[in-house]
Amino acid sequence: MEFNMGIKRFFNAFFNQFFKAFFDEFYKGFYKGGFAFGLLLASLASHADDSFSDYLVRVKVEAVAAGISEKTIDNAFAGLERDERVIKFDQRQPEFVQTFDEYLQARVTSYRKTEGAKLYQQHRELLHEVAARYEVDPEYLVAFWGLETNFGRHQGKYSIIRSLATLGHNPRRSKFFTSELVQALKILDEGHIEPDQFVGAWAGAMGQGQFMPSSFLRYAQDFDGDGKKNIWSSQADVFASIANYLKSFGWVVGAGWGGAVALTELDFETLKPESYDTACRGLRHHSKKLSLNEWAELNLVPTSKILEQPYSLIEPEVGAATGYLAGGNFRVILRYNCANKYAVSVGLLADEIRRQIESS
């Protein structure tokens, strides 16, 4: 009896949502002169009045259509409940915004510098092998590793499936997190990680490099050749996955990222570009690119030697004594996390790790 009722509920939920969405989009398409089936599928991911169980039924339909086995889905969803902690994290607003100096002091610590250099030496052979294969600079792999999860020590303990299902059911960013949930199910279906070990940060980032499921499926690597892309506990796969991500966005070996400058009075408004890449909010705070000679004419000189190439100036904070020129691979770093403070912290930590290695 319970089984029959479950089947009935499944088909009722599916066909009710399907035909409602179909006719809604049909009439829209009729008056616009065309019908986009993609809009129908998108509409299936955003029904704020659904119960959590109804939402999971709809996700199962999507996941099965994406080729994921029902066994994987049923095992992942068995007994699943919303995690209200995740909703609170998602709604929580920071009490204050850190300045550049405060952020960097908290992130680019003495511990991370010395530990990064020590771990670089420990994994030197593997790092150099990965760096050569993917054409990236090895010290940056250690910098990302250190900043994302404190060198793999703090990966998060939240269930990836439960977190993404909770956020997908919440209407605020349902489409994004529902898509990530389906990708997470695919990771389980491919056997890269056991379900009880499939954990990470509260918003779904996972592994030592903190990849979202969609990034995992695009960029994660099986460098150790065991048939699994294990970004949780295989150091080879962790380094190779970060390296592949950077390479995919155009990393250039030896190009650096930029550097610090002592600030003088200048009118940043006059240095703004005519347009910027809208895909990254951080670029809204970049000036147009100038050569080092042109920056020197504005009395902005790097405090340490950097490569001769065009750089933009990150918009200085009021009263700040130090600013940062961004060039080379800076925009690739922003593809990992589109925040200027984060990207500068990666660059500074990588520079310090390299300095310690070269001086040892």
Q: What labels would you give this structure?
A:
two-stranded antiparallel sheet; globular; disordered N terminus; 16 helices; about 350 residues; mainly alpha
Concise overview:
With 360 residues, the protein is mainly α.
Description:
It is a single chain. With 360 residues, the chain is mainly alpha-helical. It has a domain at 258-327. The chain is 53% helix and 4% strand. The protein contains 16 helices and 5 strands. The protein has a 3-stranded antiparallel beta sheet, covered by helices on one side. The protein has a two-stranded antiparallel ribbon with strand order 1-2. A hairpin with an 8-residue loop joins strand 4 and strand 5. Helix 1 (2-32) crosses helix 2 (37-43). The chain is globular, with a radius of gyration of 24 Å.
Q: Look at the structure and give the mean pLDDT.
A: 89
Name the helicity range: 40-55%
Please identify the structural class as seen in this structure.
Answer: mainly alpha
| Shape category | globular
Q: Tell me the number of helical segments per DSSP (H or I, 4 or more residues long).
A: 16
**Termini Cα gap:** 72 Å
Element string (H = helix, E = strand): HHHHHHHHHEHHEHHEHEEHH
Query: Largest beta sheet, briefly?
Result: 3 strands, antiparallel
Instruction: Output the radius of gyration.
Output: 24 Å
* Major sheet strand order: 3-5-4
Low-confidence stretches: 1-8, 18-41
Strand and helix layout:
Blueprint: H1 2-32, H2 37-43, H3 52-65, H4 70-77, H5 84-91, H6 100-107, H7 110-122, H8 124-134, H9 138-149, E1 158-159, H10 160-169, H11 174-189, E2 199-200, H12 213-219, H13 235-248, E3 258-262, H14 292-297, E4 312-313, E5 322-326, H15 330-336, H16 340-359
Antiparallel strand pairs: 1-2, 3-5, 4-5
Helix pairs in contact: 1-2, 3-4, 3-11, 6-16, 7-9, 7-16, 8-13, 9-13, 9-16, 10-11, 11-12, 12-13, 15-16
